[in-house]
């Protein structure tokens, strides 16, 4: 009888571990009670990553109990055991570590030279070669109407190519909703997959402020970062009175390891508007542009891009008609590995964008497998395009 009972327990345990468990987590600020977006959860056993949406929601599918690393640049990093998350919706409150105001950090080198050193060191420290399994999501609007949606699961095999980065791209699944008019929608564009990783891994988005010629146009300042004593923030903003299409930058970096962990960039809307020029037909007059990139650092062994978001909006005259275009892109690394895969060269995707690829849908990959849960507004966006197709 004891043997039978023991065997029953073993079977029960094995069955419990073999069943997949879906977790829903909502992150909130402990003081404001507001949802916190862009919180990264990393499953330490599998190196899978998930990012909270604007509602603070993350959904995770686990095949067995795991340790989950929770990180956000403005909050304390910590680890939670998945078995402790037993509710249908598990609310986790994040504690802000701010207890003092940021202080100006004085350096013997000009902050621009500090930035150049950070970029060079970060390029050398990034985990290459490696493979990133990435979920890409893109929304397209024209004259405030939803016209196109695109997402996909893509593997980026990242290799060093002399002083540059070589990327082989393999698409697992993708879908495109909406119809692209090649004549009237020629200005619609999404991620250029061919140079995407080179831009992120060579920090091309910082090229403008690395040029010595622009020192006189920008104010460079380094400050402490009270949220994390290991980080400094390098702030770069256009000087008062300087004209031109100039961005604001915030670069968060680990001052001990001297590597970049986060980049925020945007252009002030008033500055953008001052540079509008409608005299040239088809010219893109950008009124909104912003991007954010976050990198995950684990000891001295792992350093890779884990999340990116880009938004752009522009106005252009086409046949005397003013066309307003908006694009929003998300990029989530849902799995990282240093193990390289073998594949046939014929499988490599060489187009610039997934918009040029026929739909390949094997599963509902845009749900938990994406690492980024759709908000209700985003789901409504997709539904509006689905309804058009069905009609």
Tell me the layout of helices and strands.
Blueprint: H1 2-18, E1 21-29, E2 40-43, E3 48-51, E4 57-62, E5 67-72, E6 75-81, E7 90-94, H2 111-125, E8 130-142, E9 145-161, E10 164-178, H3 196-201, H4 207-210, E11 218-224, E12 231-238, E13 248-254, E14 259-266, H5 269-274, E15 285-298, E16 302-318, E17 321-337, H6 376-390
How would you summarize this macromolecular structure in one to three sentences?
This protein has helices spanning 2-18, 111-125, 196-201, 207-210, 269-274, 376-390, and strands spanning 21-29, 40-43, 48-51, 57-62, 67-72, 75-81, 90-94, 130-142, 145-161, 164-178, 218-224, 231-238, 248-254, 259-266, 285-298, 302-318, 321-337. The protein is an alpha+beta fold and 391 residues long. A ten-stranded antiparallel beta sheet has the order 10-9-8-17-16-15-14-13-12-11. A four-stranded antiparallel beta sheet has the order 3-2-5-6, with no helix packed on it. The chain has a three-stranded mixed beta sheet with strand order 4-1-7, with no helix packed on it.
Question: What report would you give on this structure?
Answer:
The longest helix has 17 residues. This protein has a ten-stranded antiparallel β-sheet. The N and C termini lie far apart (64 Å). The protein is an alpha+beta fold. It is 16% helix and 42% strand. The protein is globular.
For the largest beta-sheet, the strand count, sense and barrel status come to: 10 strands, antiparallel
How much of the sequence lies in strands comes to 35-45%
Could you name the ranges where pLDDT drops below 50 across 5 or more consecutive residues? Answer: 1-18
What's the end-to-end separation, in Å? 64 Å
- DSSP helix count? 6
- Average pLDDT for all residues: 89
SS-based class: alpha+beta
Q: What is the helix/strand order?
A: HEEEEEEEHEEEHHEEEEHEEEH
Shape: globular
Radius of gyration: 23 Å
Overall strand count: 17
With strands numbered from the N-terminus, the spatial order across the biggest sheet is: 10-9-8-17-16-15-14-13-12-11
Helix fraction, binned, reads: 10-25%
């Amino acid at each position: 009888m004891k043997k039978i009972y023991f065997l029953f327990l073993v079977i029960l345990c094995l069955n419990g571990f073999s069943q997949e468990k879906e977790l829903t987590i909502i992150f909130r600020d402990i003081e404001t009670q507001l949802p916190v977006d862009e919180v990264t959860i990393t499953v330490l056993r599998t190196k899978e990553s998930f990012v909270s949406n604007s509602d603070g929601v993350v959904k995770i599918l686990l095949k067995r109990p795991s340790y989950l690393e929770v990180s956000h640049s403005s909050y304390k990093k910590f680890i939670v055991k998945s078995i402790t998350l037993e509710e249908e919706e598990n609310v986790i409150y994040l504690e802000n570590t701010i207890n003092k105001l940021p202080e100006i950090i004085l350096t013997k080198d000009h902050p621009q030279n500090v930035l150049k050193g950070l970029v060079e060191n970060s390029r050398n420290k990034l985990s290459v070669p490696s493979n990133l399994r990435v979920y890409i999501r893109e929304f397209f609007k024209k004259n405030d109407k939803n016209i196109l949606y695109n997402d996909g699961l893509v593997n980026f095999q990242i290799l060093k190519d002399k002083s540059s980065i070589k990327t082989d791209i393999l698409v697992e699944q993708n879908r495109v909703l909406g119809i692209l008019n090649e004549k009237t929608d020629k200005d619609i564009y999404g991620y250029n997959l061919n140079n995407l990783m080179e831009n992120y891994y060579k920090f091309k988005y910082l090229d403008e402020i690395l040029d010595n010629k622009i020192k006189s146009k920008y104010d460079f300042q380094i400050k402490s970062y009270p949220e994390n004593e290991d980080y400094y923030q390098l702030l770069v903003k256009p000087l008062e009175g300087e004209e031109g299409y100039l961005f604001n930058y915030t670069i968060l970096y680990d001052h001990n390891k001297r590597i970049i962990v986060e980049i925020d960039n945007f252009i002030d809307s008033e500055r953008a508007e001052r540079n509008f020029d409608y005299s040239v037909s088809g010219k893109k007059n950008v009124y909104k542009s912003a991007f954010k990139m976050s990198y995950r650092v684990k000891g001295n062994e792992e350093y890779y891009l884990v999340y990116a978001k880009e938004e752009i909006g522009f106005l252009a005259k086409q046949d005397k008609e003013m066309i307003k275009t908006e694009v929003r892109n998300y990029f989530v690394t849902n799995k990282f590995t240093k193990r390289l895969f073998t594949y046939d060269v014929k499988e490599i995707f060489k187009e610039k964008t997934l918009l040029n690829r026929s739909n390949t849908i094997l599963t509902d990959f845009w749900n938990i497998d994406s690492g980024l849960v759709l908000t209700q507004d985003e789901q409504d966006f997709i539904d509006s395009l689905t309804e058009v197709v069905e009609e």
